[in-house]
Design the sequence.
Protein backbone atom coordinates (compact mmCIF):
# COMPACT_ATOMS: atom_id res chain seq x y z
CA UNK A 1 0.00 0.00 0.00
CA UNK A 2 1.03 3.52 -0.62
CA UNK A 3 2.37 5.67 2.20
CA UNK A 4 1.05 8.78 0.45
CA UNK A 5 -1.44 10.37 2.90
CA UNK A 6 -3.63 11.45 -0.03
CA UNK A 7 -3.85 7.87 -1.35
CA UNK A 8 -7.06 5.99 -0.57
CA UNK A 9 -6.85 3.35 2.12
CA UNK A 10 -8.40 -0.04 1.61
CA UNK A 11 -9.61 -2.47 4.23
CA UNK A 12 -8.83 -6.14 3.68
CA UNK A 13 -11.75 -8.49 4.20
CA UNK A 14 -11.38 -11.19 6.86
CA UNK A 15 -9.12 -14.05 5.79
CA UNK A 16 -10.57 -17.46 4.99
CA UNK A 17 -9.40 -20.84 3.76
CA UNK A 18 -6.00 -20.81 5.47
CA UNK A 19 -4.35 -18.83 2.64
CA UNK A 20 -5.92 -15.51 3.60
CA UNK A 21 -7.15 -14.78 0.08
CA UNK A 22 -10.58 -13.23 -0.32
CA UNK A 23 -12.81 -12.31 -3.22
CA UNK A 24 -14.68 -9.08 -2.53
CA UNK A 25 -18.41 -8.65 -3.06
CA UNK A 26 -17.65 -6.12 -5.81
CA UNK A 27 -15.53 -8.68 -7.67
CA UNK A 28 -18.18 -11.39 -7.22
CA UNK A 29 -20.90 -9.09 -8.60
CA UNK A 30 -18.74 -8.20 -11.61
CA UNK A 31 -17.98 -11.87 -12.31
CA UNK A 32 -21.71 -12.65 -12.18
CA UNK A 33 -22.40 -9.86 -14.71
CA UNK A 34 -19.61 -11.07 -16.98
CA UNK A 35 -20.98 -14.62 -16.81
CA UNK A 36 -24.46 -13.38 -17.72
CA UNK A 37 -23.03 -11.46 -20.68
CA UNK A 38 -21.07 -14.52 -21.83
CA UNK A 39 -24.03 -16.84 -21.34
CA UNK A 40 -22.00 -19.19 -19.15
CA UNK A 41 -20.27 -19.09 -15.76
CA UNK A 42 -16.76 -17.64 -15.72
CA UNK A 43 -14.03 -17.59 -13.09
CA UNK A 44 -11.26 -15.05 -12.62
CA UNK A 45 -7.75 -16.48 -12.78
CA UNK A 46 -5.26 -14.31 -10.88
CA UNK A 47 -1.54 -14.93 -11.31
CA UNK A 48 1.72 -13.19 -10.49
CA UNK A 49 4.35 -12.93 -13.24
CA UNK A 50 7.84 -11.49 -13.17
CA UNK A 51 8.11 -8.12 -14.89
CA UNK A 52 6.32 -4.81 -14.87
CA UNK A 53 7.86 -1.57 -13.69
CA UNK A 54 8.06 -2.74 -10.06
CA UNK A 55 9.38 -6.31 -10.45
CA UNK A 56 6.18 -8.38 -10.40
CA UNK A 57 2.86 -7.92 -12.16
CA UNK A 58 -0.65 -9.27 -11.74
CA UNK A 59 -2.29 -11.14 -14.61
CA UNK A 60 -6.08 -11.53 -14.81
CA UNK A 61 -7.88 -13.94 -17.14
CA UNK A 62 -11.48 -15.09 -17.40
CA UNK A 63 -11.67 -18.89 -17.61
CA UNK A 64 -14.36 -21.55 -17.62
CA UNK A 65 -12.46 -24.37 -15.94
CA UNK A 66 -10.01 -24.69 -13.07
CA UNK A 67 -6.72 -26.57 -13.13
CA UNK A 68 -6.40 -29.48 -10.71
CA UNK A 69 -3.94 -27.63 -8.43
CA UNK A 70 -5.71 -24.25 -8.40
CA UNK A 71 -6.68 -22.60 -5.13
CA UNK A 72 -10.33 -21.58 -5.40
CA UNK A 73 -11.66 -18.50 -3.59
CA UNK A 74 -15.44 -18.10 -3.57
CA UNK A 75 -17.89 -15.37 -2.66
CA UNK A 76 -21.58 -15.24 -3.53
CA UNK A 77 -21.36 -18.26 -5.84
CA UNK A 78 -18.54 -16.69 -7.89
CA UNK A 79 -14.91 -17.85 -7.92
CA UNK A 80 -11.36 -16.67 -8.44
CA UNK A 81 -8.50 -19.10 -9.05
CA UNK A 82 -4.86 -18.80 -8.03
CA UNK A 83 -2.07 -21.17 -9.02
CA UNK A 84 0.22 -22.56 -6.26
CA UNK A 85 3.27 -20.66 -7.60
CA UNK A 86 1.49 -17.29 -7.29
CA UNK A 87 0.00 -18.04 -3.86
CA UNK A 88 2.99 -16.92 -1.72
CA UNK A 89 2.90 -13.49 -3.39
CA UNK A 90 -0.84 -13.11 -2.76
CA UNK A 91 -1.29 -14.44 0.79
CA UNK A 92 -3.62 -12.23 2.76
CA UNK A 93 -4.74 -10.31 -0.35
CA UNK A 94 -8.20 -9.26 -1.44
CA UNK A 95 -9.25 -9.53 -5.07
CA UNK A 96 -11.68 -6.69 -5.79
CA UNK A 97 -13.30 -4.82 -8.67
CA UNK A 98 -13.11 -1.04 -8.76
CA UNK A 99 -14.86 1.41 -11.04
CA UNK A 100 -13.44 4.91 -10.64
CA UNK A 101 -12.01 7.78 -12.68
CA UNK A 102 -8.99 5.72 -13.74
CA UNK A 103 -11.24 2.98 -15.15
CA UNK A 104 -13.06 -0.20 -14.25
CA UNK A 105 -10.82 -3.13 -13.40
CA UNK A 106 -10.06 -6.05 -11.16
CA UNK A 107 -7.38 -5.19 -8.58
CA UNK A 108 -5.40 -6.98 -5.91
CA UNK A 109 -5.16 -5.29 -2.53
CA UNK A 110 -1.94 -6.91 -1.43
CA UNK A 111 -0.60 -6.27 2.09
CA UNK A 112 2.71 -7.94 1.08
CA UNK A 113 3.53 -5.34 -1.58
CA UNK A 114 6.22 -2.94 -0.40
CA UNK A 115 5.50 -0.63 -3.32
CA UNK A 116 3.42 -0.58 -6.48
CA UNK A 117 3.26 1.37 -9.71
CA UNK A 118 0.71 4.08 -10.40
CA UNK A 119 -1.53 1.80 -12.44
CA UNK A 120 -1.64 -0.84 -9.68
CA UNK A 121 -0.72 -3.71 -12.01
CA UNK A 122 2.88 -4.18 -10.87
CA UNK A 123 4.40 -4.35 -7.40
CA UNK A 124 7.52 -5.20 -5.42
CA UNK A 125 7.97 -7.16 -2.22
Sequence:
Amino acid sequence: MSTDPAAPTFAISPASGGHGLTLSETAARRLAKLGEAEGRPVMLRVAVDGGGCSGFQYRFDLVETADADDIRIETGGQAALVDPVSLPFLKGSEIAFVDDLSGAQFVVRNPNAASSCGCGVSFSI
Q: What stands out?
A: The chain has two helices and nine strands. The CA atoms of residues 32 and 38 lie 10 Å apart.
